[in-house]
Amino acid sequence: MAGITINKVDNRSFLKIGSEQIEVSDYNVKSTASGVTELNVTIRGTSNVFEMSANLKEQMKLIP
Q1: Binning pLDDT at 50, 70 and 90, where does residue 59 land?
Q2: In the 3-class helix/strand/coil scheme, how is the chain assigned residue by residue?
Q3: pTM above the 0.70 mark?
Q4: What are phi and psi of 24, to 5 degrees?
Q5: Residue 16 CA neighbour count, 13 Å, CB half
Q6: What is the spatial order of strands in the sheet that 20-24 belongs to?
Q7: Alpha carbon distances (Å) from 63 to 1, 2, 59
Q8: What is the pLDDT of residues 3-39, one digit of tens each?
Q9: Side-chain half-sphere of 61: how many Cα atoms within 13 Å?
């Protein structure tokens, strides 16, 4: 399974999935009593949506 982490460096936050990393402007983690965890991230600025979609599809292949 690909590891998902949020790293903070000074006042900046970075979302890392596997070996890919992107800066995020905000994030929120919510867990429920049933064990479901939800991660919401906000990305501001210009990003290549097609590249991000391709990376997410590749990472999802790693999750059983």
Answers
A1: low
A2: CCCEEEEEECCEEEEEECCEEEEECEEEEEECCCCCEEEEEECCCCCCHHHHHHHHHHHHHCCC
A3: no
A4: -120, 145
A5: 10
A6: 4-9, 12-17, 20-24
A7: 5, 7, 7
A8: 888 999 999 999 888 888 888 899 998 988 888 888 8
A9: 5
CA distance 24 to 31: 20
Tokens 């979609």, located at residue: 53
In this structure, which long-range contacts are made by residues 5-11, counting pairs with CB atoms below 8 Å and at least 24 apart in sequence?
Answer: none
Q: What residue type is assigned to position 17 of the chain?
A: I
Match 């982490």 to its residue by tokens. Answer: 5
What are the domain boundaries of the chain? 4-61
